Amino acid sequence: MDPINNVSQQEAIHAKGPTLVIAGPGTGKTFTIIQRVLHLIRDEKVKPEEIMIVTYTVKASKELITRLTNELSRQGIEVNLHEMYIGTFHHICRRLLKEFREYTRLERNYIETDQFEQQYLVYEHLDEFESIDHFEDVVPSSWIKMSTGEEIRISPWRRCRRICEYVNRLSEELMNPEELLQSGEIKEQVLGRMMMKYDKLAKTKNFLDFTRLQTEAYYILSEKKNVLRRVRDRVRYILVDEYQDTNYIQEKLVQLLSGDDGEVFVVGDDDQSIYRFRGATVKNILLFQRPYGAICHVIKLNTNYRSNQGIVEFCMKWMALPRWFNWERNGTLYRYQKGRVHSAEGPVESPSVVRITAENNEPNFQKKVCDFIEKLKEEGCITDYNQVAILFDSVKGDISTRLQYALQHRGIPVYAPRSGHFFERKEVAWFFGSLLYLFPKIMDRMKRTHVLSETENIEEKYLTFLSMTKVMLDGNRELKEWLEKTGKEIEKSKQLPSGLLSLAYDILCHKPFTDILDAAAEGESREARNLSAITRLISRYDCFIEENHGYGRETVEDMFQFFARYLRLWFENGVGEYEDEEAYAPSGQVSFLNIHQSKGLEYPVVISASLQEYPRGEDSLISDVVTHITGRSSYEPKKDIKDFDFRRKYYTAFSRAETLLVLACNKKPGKVPSREFMGPLESLPEWDDPSVDFTKLHFQPVEQTHFKPRFSFTSQVALYEDCPRKYKFTKVYRFAPILGKGLLYGTLVHETIEDIHRAALRGETDALTPANIYAWMMADYQGLAKAENTWLPRAELDQAFQEILGYVSFRRGDWSMIREAEYPLELVKEDYIMDGTIDLLQEKDGSVDVIDFKTGAKPSPESRLMKRYTSQLQIYAYLVEQKMGKPVGNLLLYFTGDEENPLYPVPGNDFEVEKRIKAFDETAGHILSEDFNHRAERKGKEMSEPCRHCEWRKYCWKEE
User: Would strands 111-112 and 328-329 be described as parallel, antiparallel, or unpaired?
Assistant: First the structure.
């Protein structure tokens, strides 16, 4: 895709002023964004920190960073991407809140929550929501099935999901609960009270969900004019990807940040707007021009570099063929006219859109799908099953599930991480069964109190866990004896011997789990991925236990609640299995995906197999309320929205195909296909029709994405140098670490010193009094303790405060040399990005002093720990010189626990720094080559320092 040969891309790259780029599937939108950024930096001399790039997903952000850094490096342009705002809306809002946290309404060290945790918080307080007058009118507990008159109960968990959806949507529409309370409509008053109730709960827990991330960022930008001015002074160019999927608050954030100058560049495709259920509105892209008028450029990219001409033409017919669908209503066209879209590949020699159908015979339908895939493989059209993807409205449905089994029965492996099979995996059953075996009275109590009745099939699932575990334990005597011994100790003491996460690692350090870990150490293991997910689940459970009962570990009652509530709701919520962002199509397996999951992906062969679907209306309560209170409408006619969205959804599905698109269904008179698919389906030849010759089509291998990883000294390199095996379990498999009080203490001192530096940088040195510093420390402590559910004794808090005051005294009131605190730096290398965060930069006589803070007493100069500290500082010196272009003066370590002589100078000569950088590169090379199959060095039978506090010490040392 040479921009010189693509006039539309060239026009977009060089556009000035507000610009909308309509970029359909495969038209090179990411390429265009990258080339525009290069043009701004290289030709327009725009500084990187003056550019903001917003992506819709984390994956898209990583891909953009990788491709951008590669291209910048290729052209010899040095850029510190830390200086550029680049990431999702949530990432950028998170960064704004961190940079301007003193202006927010948030407590320090808030806990970011995901969808499950937000919903669980509501569940814990559902009775408080139910006490709201007329709550049942807004969030009903049942519904009547019209065909039978039967009353169908809605589970409390599903009601909590509805509460979260309503609160989030209203917040993203910037609705004020006070406005809703003043409404004359009962439902709107209920919604206002729901918002206020949830806001109070979230603040009490210091929880910050994804929606509040955005509303808090909007608050500081709209209410704190100095913050908005500072951000606008810095950011001059804003680029937004997937603009069709933005919601109201995101549109307002873009408008706030871009200001009146309007140097905003948005890319999107209204035909792929499929996230209305998340609050996205296609109105943003359809009416983007309106505020700017004639100065707004609208550029359409009409060359498809992904799909062949047959697929392109079918997709455009699906959207615009008059006999199939019409987008005009009362003289208004609710879609951008795309003109003629053509494939860069040119015409095809055989039909590239076909159908697979059976006549009301599902086994025959499954056989035909299997025959079709095997034919592609036998004829050499595809070389790997991962070139085929089968898309459904939901991969958990019966048609999808049965087709998965049919393929596997024919020896065709399947990759379906969102099919809901997590709790069916043997390793999951063994682990939770082991916990239930450890606490035998819990199952009896749950049966007796009927606490499991809310969630369908959960009691049977727990019993299956136990029965599978008992069979497993018959062949694993050591684990059985340990469980029985530990269970007796718990029964006697009425408390756990350690925290639940530590208990989990004790279980994992026995067979058969060690067999899984051994396999994971050698290569990729789905079983280890699932065990890792369990540790992360357990680590977050502490967020919902009040202060851990004062002694830092769970009680037997907590274990009851874990099974009776927390895990039960995790089961009801549905758990997906591991998905690799880079290897999105694992080799040797046919992918089963839902349509939303497939967005942004592409496959040589796509089978669309939900042809029984039809347009369905969604809950319009929130959009109706917004219209009533604010006058803002959804723009599209309400009665047509479901038809518009249906077209967009399946256009997105069809356009994933590169070479061959297949519409597949088991026909059932009057039901399948639905009316919407009848015309398109009948227009296609059957897959085995003589006119179809797959060998004349050009199938390419799936091109896997490779993201450029970030390596920092402390988080990656030092961990690997300690123990490659631990690195793999922690960073690759993402097993949850066990965090102790020592880490809490160090973080507390570190963050309070950061508060002091930030005050000094703001010129508020008068505020550096013991009383203020103590208040900052305690605010930090409350947030950290809640986040980690770990608490420090009073003596340790007093000691931390004395160490902090000791640093202030050491400064003797001189803060004049401070230039930066918590300063991020990075260096783009060929295969990775080296980055780090420097605690403190001071400037004197044209050179920069680099200072790193360490808690506790100063270790011996020859100790392993001091050598690590020294290496880290030398890395920082290298980054400073490379990226700031200034010589480094002193390299200093400051030890807060050393009252007499806290400073320790580190040699910063070129030889030492060069040696350290070479070692860093070598370690990064080992990580990139996945050289993990060895562990920390041992000296006789004595545990090395890295092993003593490691979660895996019992696993590793059991091998001896």
Answer: unpaired
Strand-strand pairing, 297-301 and 19-23: parallel
d(CA 835, CA 92): 18
Q: What is the CA radius of gyration of the chain?
A: 30
Q: Take residue 728 and report the two structure tokens written for it.
A: 């793999």
> What six digits make up the tokens of 134?
């007329």
| Angle ∠(470,455,425) on CA atoms, nearest 5 | 40
Task: Report the C-alpha gap between 629 and 723 in whole angstroms.
Answer: 59
- The identity of residue 160, as a single letter, is C
pLDDT at 547 over 80: no
Helices 58-74, 29-38: axis angle to 10 degrees equals 50
Q: Given this model, what pLDDT does residue 877 score? A: 87
Q: Residue 551: pLDDT band by 50, 70, 90 thresholds?
A: very low
Contacts of 600 (CB under 8 A, 6+ apart): 57, 59, 60
Torsional class of 10: left (φ above 0), alpha (ψ -120 to 50), beta (otherwise): alpha
Rounded CA-CA distance 678/680 in Å is: 6
CB atoms within 10 A of CB 394: 16
- Phi and psi (nearest 5°) for 888? -90, 130
Look at the chain and count its residues.
960
pLDDT score for 959: 54
pLDDT value of position 376: 98
Residue 403 C-alpha from the chain's centroid: 29
User: What is the average per-residue pLDDT within 881-886?
Assistant: 81
* Per-residue pLDDT reduced to its tens digit, 828-844: 888 999 888 999 999 98
| Rounded mean pLDDT, 498-518 | 94
pLDDT band at 917 (very low <50, low <70, confident <90, very high): confident
Strand partners, 851: 840, 892
Distance of CA 841 to the CA centre of its chain: 32
Q: What are 417's two structure tokens?
A: 């991480």
Under the phi-then-psi rule, with left for phi > 0, alpha for psi from -120 to 50, and beta for the rest, what region is 616? beta
Whether the pLDDT of residue 958 is over 60: the answer is yes
CB 659 within 8 A of CB 698: yes
Which residues are within 8 A (CB) of 914 and not within 5 positions of it... i.e. 6 or more apart?
A: none
Between CA 388 and CA 702 the distance in angstroms is: 9
Within 631-667, residue ranges assigned H as helices are 641-654
Q: Cα–Cα distances in Å, from 162 out to 81, 123, 156, 191, 619?
A: 39, 11, 10, 11, 10
Buried b (16+ CB within 10 A) or exposed e, 794-806: eeebebbbebbee
Residue with tokens 């327009």, as numbered in its chain: 44
CA-CA distances (angstroms) from residue 800 to 52, 768, 869?
Answer: 39, 16, 21
Q: State pTM to two decimals.
A: 0.91
Rounded to 10 deg, the angle between the 500-508 and 526-541 helix axes is 160
Predicted confidence (pLDDT) per residue in 210-243, tens digit: 999 999 999 999 999 999 999 999 999 999 999 9
Number of Cβ within a 10 Å radius of residue 363: 11
> Which phi and psi (to 5°) does residue 907 adopt?
-60, 130
Computed over every residue of the chain, the mean pLDDT equals: 92
Angle between helices 621-630 and 156-172 (to 10 degrees): 30
Spatial contact of 159 and 125, defined as CB atoms under 8 Å apart: no
User: What are the structure tokens assigned to 91, written together?
Assistant: 């990432």
Q: Which residue has the tokens 């047509």?
A: 640
Residues 443-460 have a mean pLDDT of 93
* Most distant pair of Cα atoms in the chain: their distance: 90
pLDDT (average), residues 785-805: 86
Quick: pLDDT tens for 611-658.
Answer: 999 999 889 999 999 999 999 988 999 999 999 999 999 999 999 999
